[in-house]
Amino acid sequence: MTTATISRRRFGRALTHTGVITRRNLLANVRLLDVLILSTVQPIVFMLMFLYVFGGAIQGALPPAAQGEYVYWLLPGILAQSAVFGSAPTAYGLNNDRAKGVLDRFRSLPMARSAVLTGRTLSDLVRSTFILGLQLVVGVALGFRWHNGIGGVVAAIGVALAFGYACSWLMAFIGLTIVNSEAIQAAIYLVVFPMTLTSSVFLPTRTMPGWLQAFAEHQPITIVANALRGLTLGQGALPTGHTVTGETLLALAWTAGLLAVFAPLAIRRYRRNAN
Amino acid sequence: MSDPIVTVDEVTKQFRDGTRALDGLSLTIPRGIIYGLLGPNGAGKTTLIRILATLLRPDSGTVRIAGFDVTRHPTAVRDRIGLAGQFAAVDDHLTGRENIAMIGRLYGLPRREANARTEQVLQRIHLADAADRPVRTYSGGMRRRIDLAASLVGRPQVLFLDEPTTGVDPASRQDLWHLVRDLAAEGTTVLLTTQYLDEADQLAGRIAVINHGRLLTEGTATELKDRTGGAVVELDIAAGQRDVTLRALEPLDAQFATDRGRIVLPAPDGPLTLRHALRLLDQADITPTDVALHRPTLDDVFLTLTRPNTTDRIAARRAA
């Protein structure tokens, strides 16, 4: 047997195992009906809440491309936020599997070492795809219209999901590193909430104090939200000096960077994790 | 005797917090038997299982399973082992059948074979009726059986069971015992840890007693009982007099056996030791409510061996 056939066989095995694990996690999503319903309703409620609570006050601060309608500003932002929030279950899922001894069982099996984490991140990606799609539909029903063709919308969803997927690997690392599930929750809230609030997700960063503005303009969630606005609404939705292509490439660079750092770290954690 | 299927040679494992979980432990397990690993909590049983199951690496020493070194060829080892841990590691929202078939796929079986094998395993654990219900509706004993079945689906040569019957009701325990016996009869080697001495006594062909990560003794249940030096004296004492009694019987190494609520002392000289004990009680003006002299149970072996001063004595004898 040549090295090539061995590595091909190995890759095939990893693929099969990843498929088995992804299916297992998705079945859990579908069968836990209460969790499914609540986690679907929650992002929609979130979106409606921000739209109607903030909408009136914010209209004046919006760029012309938003046509004075907050939903134009909010929807791309909310999609970026949901992609990030949608990665949190990766941490909870892995933590839960570890607590139940399921990870130990998987580690004692002759299976590909990457399959458990790849399967988990992929099943969370499927879930995020569903939620983002749903938010888009609700957004359109509330008056959102894209100006850049359906291609722009598809590209925007793609960028959001790619970034969310990269965040899933960060969450995998957190979920395998922190043992206590409540501590995980606290850690995630500590990072995710301030990060989305100090970004352009809900409001243009122009009105923030200078020191915060400097951070807010350059942090990755702002960049992803900007990329989504540019891709759906066109150049006019972006702050001066930013281009749609530029923001998109920057968002993808953040995605690649997160993946490059946290995928190897998470896999290493998984290999050497000892309860 | 054929080659042992598991050899553990001078294995040491120290955790980051400084606990020495295994301290030069050596064991060999012959093929096709049920091997019992006994020890108090924290003795190193679970650590050993985790090393054997390739979940932990030993700091030093070697472990071979079916001829493969666990650190150098973990995948070859994983192909040949099954693990059922202290908690039933099954998915609540999947059915029993789905749980087992999934593990079969992860053992590398093609889908059709995994399904066929799942069917066989379900028959064998007598859960075919409940197989299509989600595991969340199962009783504790059923969950354990599914967990065990999942570890069988890959036809392991060695099965590791970490406290398989802890927290299981007596009837389910009997079922699990039957299952384990059948497996061993078919040639699967089973290594099981347990806190229940009767479980080891009933099931295990050989037993190792470990404490503080070291092997205290090893052999068949009968050998172990003989080695402890024969009989024991058991005394029932009114609760208020327990401490006084223990003090009076200190020269005879008397101990309070919490599980039985009695005072127990080794009686190497049989009736002579009993007479000595009664004389000491008489001097202290204590009247037991019941007295018995009997051959040691595995509990007595365990108590004698894991008593702190015995461990020290053994260590001292080794050092000398």
Automatic annotation (TrEMBL), chain A:
Pfam families: ABC2_membrane. Its main location: membrane. It is found in: Cell membrane; Membrane. It comes from the Bacteria. The chain crosses the membrane at residues 32-58, 70-94, 129-147, 153-179, 186-203, 248-267. The keyword Translocase does not apply. Residues 34-273 form the ABC transmembrane type-2 domain. It is a multi-pass membrane protein. PROSITE patterns: ABC_TM2. Keywords: Antibiotic resistance, Cell membrane, Membrane, Transmembrane, Transmembrane helix, Transport. Belongs to the ABC-2 integral membrane protein family. This is Transport permease protein.
Automatic annotation (TrEMBL), chain B:
InterPro entries: AAA+_ATPase, ABC_transporter-like_ATP-bd, ABC_transporter-like_CS, ABC_transporter_ATP-binding, DrrA, P-loop_NTPase. GO terms for molecular function: ATP binding. SMART domains: AAA. It is found in: Cell membrane. Its main location: membrane. Residues 6-237 form the ABC transporter domain. The keyword Membrane applies. It is a peripheral membrane protein. Belongs to the ABC transporter superfamily. Drug exporter-1 (DrugE1) (TC 3.A.1.105) family. This is ATP-binding cassette domain-containing protein. The lineage of its organism: Bacteria, Bacillati, Actinomycetota, Actinomycetes, Micromonosporales.
